[in-house]
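3.2 Worked example (two chains)
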Amino acid sequence: MGNIGQTVMNLLDQTAFSSLYWGNYVMILVACIFLYLAIAKGFEPLLLVPISFGMLLVNIYPPIIQEGGLLWYFYKLDEWAILPSLIFMGVGAMTDFGPLIANPKSFLMGAAAQLGIYVAYFLAMLLGFSGPAAAAISIIGGADGPTSIFLASKLGQTALLGPIAVAAYSYMSLVPLIQPPVMKLCTTEKERKIKMGQLRPVSKLEKILFPVVITIVVCMILPSVTPLVGMLMLGNLFRESGVVRQLTETASNAMMYMVVILLGTSVGATTSAEAFLQADTLKIVGLGLVAFAFGTFGGVMLGKLMCKLSGGKINPLIGSAGVSAVPMAARVSQKVGAEYDPTNFLLMHAMGPNVAGVIGTAVAAGTFMAVFGVK
């Protein structure tokens, strides 16, 4: 009987129950809530399902993210900025840059929506974060997970990479909840009902030249963001050239989804209770929300200005799409506009600021890297 009792005790010691503490159970509950939002509510399940499941795994079995563990290898690809760059290639291959080319003024709204980044940067400095840490945190305001991971790695903020990445991807997933209240607060019903004229046709030559010209201009000025901007434009060149259909399909489908699995689960796995349940994490999550709200505010307010200057031809709602979450933010612009006029179609117009926001967030990251001397 003694041997049986000892065997039972050994088996119990090997269960997760013997090594977990209350914080792990809190994070397991958070992971289950995220899974519910992704599966039952449809909040960007492609992002939220792998992130929340990685969160679940690491809080049941913490060694999975430690050196030699399965997700440690995935995480190193984040740390080396490989997965974020590949995500950008997939985004470029999936996205039509035509609306931005047809309406170059969209660049202004994309730039204005970066307001949240700079507001969050100065607030983070006031809260006691170092300059590089504040810069890495502030990029959450661009609602761009890959760029957040890229900048945190380049600035040496790997200790904060987990909370930053989770906050960025969580806010990307929650765009349909966070943006509409800010958009409605900043606009009148009359402005929300504005119908915009049809965009001009964009030639194939323009679509081919655009990624080449943007790569040359942006990467010559800020060479440190070449991995992101270069891969974004390469993916788009695959799409628009029309001569590499197989590469376009691979970049926008098989490769993209594989990278999302690796990146999502590894990001989720950085949220072990010991690392995540800290005061700095709460500050980062709060700063991310502030940054995202101010980014939406900046884009919409410039949209209002452009509306007045154009004599009421621009719907300010499309400015909110400048926060870079492609194409989620553009869909939200369309959804809010359709609430007030079901015949109003803003999606293609909103894609201009949306694409501009992706480029703008990468430029903001490159600016911070230049400021702190990172190449």
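3.2.1 Second chain
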Amino acid sequence: MNLSVYTKEFRRNLTLAYPVMIGMLGHTLIGIVDNIMVGRLGSTELAAVSLGNSMIFIAMSIGIGFSTAITPIVAEADAEKDNNKIRSAFHHGLFLCIILGFSLFGLVVLAKPIMELLQQPDDVIALAKPFVDWVAFSLVPLIIYQGYKQFADGLSMTKVSMYAIVMANILHVIINYCLIYGFWIFPKMGIIGAALGTVLSRIAMVIFMHFILSRKEQLKQYFQNFSFEEIKKESIRKIVNLGFPSAMQMLFEVVLFTAGIWLCGNIGKTSQAANQIALSLASMTFMVAMGLSVTAMIRVSNQKGLNDYKQLVIVARSIFLLAILIEIVFAVMFVALHQILPYLFLNMENETQLLDNQEVIAIAAKLLLVAAVFQITDGLQVVVLGALRGLQDVKIPMYITFVAYWIIGFPISFYLGEFTELKAVGVWIGLLAGLTAAAIFLYIRFHYLTKKLITQTSDK
């Protein structure tokens, strides 16, 4: 088939994807800003915030993963022009996001004793516990916001959540500055100020989303006359059946990378620091793939609603191709700059840390070479996963991701990191193996399903 069939879809893909990319980056920035602003208070405070945010990040991945169930249902109904189905998906999805937000808040608060099991220093735990209480509460508005976001994404309105995230990040920096350091009438609250900054900025995100979406003329019908009598068991079941496996897929990947942090920590502090540098850079480029994954979910769902499976395959492959091309550019950049990029994260003028920092840079440079390769497979596996969610196929991909990450990837990471001279590089080779296996198996699954759907429709 002519390559132009796919490339002519690139503009539409990027128009939908770039607001999602900025939005995903905004989620990440809230944690990064906390680290930068709290870092000025001292290393104990920074360690406490990092520890607290790592617990929140795992809970957040479950909430975000679950909420993605709303988008394919809304996008399919949008193509079918079925307003009742859109309304039902929005109301049931938002209802479940509210319940999940409060449930995750409770779970994180109850999970605080895990900090002692992780053998963290007592002074770090003492600071982290009250921080976690507040930041855990921010999961409630965050997951509710996700309900609104996934609804808007399903209607191809990806820019609204981008504006909400940009607003939240600006507000977050202002509140953090006032409450962490004390400014004007505001008290100096240290890391609790950072936690309150996160809570208030996420509440503002929900208010912003509700206000903007409910004011749009074509959406007013979805915001009127809500009643609990509309909540039906079968609609709840449909979203849970899509949402639970999607949440597990995201959890499996997040916990795999968290396990990578733990393995590098076991090897030594320089390996852990190098891992953090490489992971920060890889996470930023991964947001591009995440944006394309949501685009795949939206556009595949639209074609599913139109029952046009041949066009569905063209659209999906155009997104896969675009993801591979962009990730190759990032891979080349990582290879070309692997000796330079780690310097951005370290203060080389600190002579007491000079030897350690040189070792960190040497390890991080090697990790970036591995990261260059897994840019491509990581990007591909996440966009194929988005396309499969668009087909509302989530259970088999859940098993595929579990096998790829935990039966293939983690054992390789563990063995090479703990028992060979490769150390941190070995941990990352395991991550690469897991992500590559996921990309291959998920694409085989997508090809099998779409071929079957095309055959069924042509037989009718």
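3.3 Remarks
The mean pLDDT is 89.
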